[in-house]
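Troubleshooting: if your tokenizer reports a length mismatch, compare against these two reference records.
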Amino acid sequence: MLMVKTILVCCLFFISLFTLSHASSWNWFWWNEKDANFNPSNTVNDVPKSPIILVPGDGGSQLEAQVDKPEVVHYICQQKTSEYFTLWLNLADLVPYVIDCWVDNMRLLYDPETRKTHNPPGVSIRVPGFGNTSTVEYVDPSQVSLAGYFNVLVAEMVKIGYQRGINIRGAPYDFRKSPLELDDFYKNFKSLVEETYTINGGRKVMIVCHSLGCPTMLYFLNRQKFYWKNKYVKSFVTLAGAWGGAVKALKAYASGDNFGVITITALTIRKEERTFPSLAYLLPSDKFWAPHQTLLSTGRKNYTVADYQQFFNDINYPIGYEMWKDTKELTQSMDSPEVTVHCLHGVGLKTMSSLRYSYENFPNHDPLAESSDGDGTVNLASLRGCLRMQQQQLKPVHYTTFKGVDHMAIMSDPNVIQYLKRISIYNPNEEQSSWWETIWGGLNQFYDKIRHP
């Protein structure tokens, strides 16, 4: 009887291998006729393309709001609107007095019981353009050049045959939130990957992320089954990934960050920045900075990654410490995504590495900043975090740096775009699963079928 059961289990296992939901899982075993016209000698314009999904970073998605508020901070602020309006980004909102209305709408409220955030009373916020590229090409719908994001990259890919909404798509999300509050986004993103794969003839998808979008996507990939990733994901392309956070996030908590907009003060922006769990997620991680390394000094007190509780108490924002506790172990250990990785970032630029405040005015003034290597925003140690994946997975982790290319310019740098064009060429030979990938994926799927018949 035991032998019969063993035979049945083995039969079910091999049946599951042959029904991994697409014949391309066994392309190493036979040739797929639809790929017979592939010719590696063709130019990048002529060859088939792998579909791309773009995932923006902090501030890289448009946000829209509708309000019906019990009260407003100024008489000039709208208390009720009949339709949704652009909240992020409308450059006209970033002027004195009007910006107070904007801050009051953008901020989040943290619930220490549920450990979740929500919008202020009477404010509804949505993320437009999911699946398209329009709202990640420009963060201001007016498409002024100052608000360009993925616009140059998309335009360059269109030149070689990509089509917006078909094989180059966008996945905007509420960048104020940490991965813990993005369940709906992740559900929709998974469906977007599957849909994009299907409408492009079963070609695996390249996930191209920037900055905060990279650890946000690592969190997603870490929670997907191997057989799903092996079927749908060609590669994980990370542009300036903020893997271990950045000292700049510490400054935003202490005295704010006005993003270089000279018409507004950093302290005004600080009111809403502090409320974002994603900012806590981007604080320097104790897995990347040593516990004795001073990140902020007031002359009387030095703060390291081991002093966050004291830091948040001293700036009179203890909720920030709670949000940091929620987010400090999400992806900072750099667990393998189990897909091919292309890690690209700039180097050779002065990047904020430590902050010096005066004790008397801390934290309500701009600090003196010391600098070290990085991309102008994210510190080098954090950018290099992707290298930790090399020891954790069999799939390759390709690592390339670009001297003098800053955190935002990486999305429009000609050498970076040329790199993306090269790896976006669809090669059916590369998409064939190896024997170990097929067997391991089959075991994963077989186990799932047993657990969830």
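Reference record two:
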Amino acid sequence: MPRAATTPPYGVVSARWVREKGRFRLDVGLPPNTTAQVRVPTAGRTQVTGDGAVFQGIRGDRAT
């Protein structure tokens, strides 16, 4: 599973992702009391669902 992480002043920000069986899974870790805007590829889909995620909309080829 590919992953990335960085440590800004407020704590660790991390992401891990995997693509298998036609599905894309993204796990994001954030420091406490922070927010983030996450954009994921849509592969041309007009609807994207997330397990525990709420998407505000799709712009171009990314769901936000």
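Descriptive notes for reference record two:
- The chain has no helices and six strands.
- The chain has a mean pLDDT of 86.
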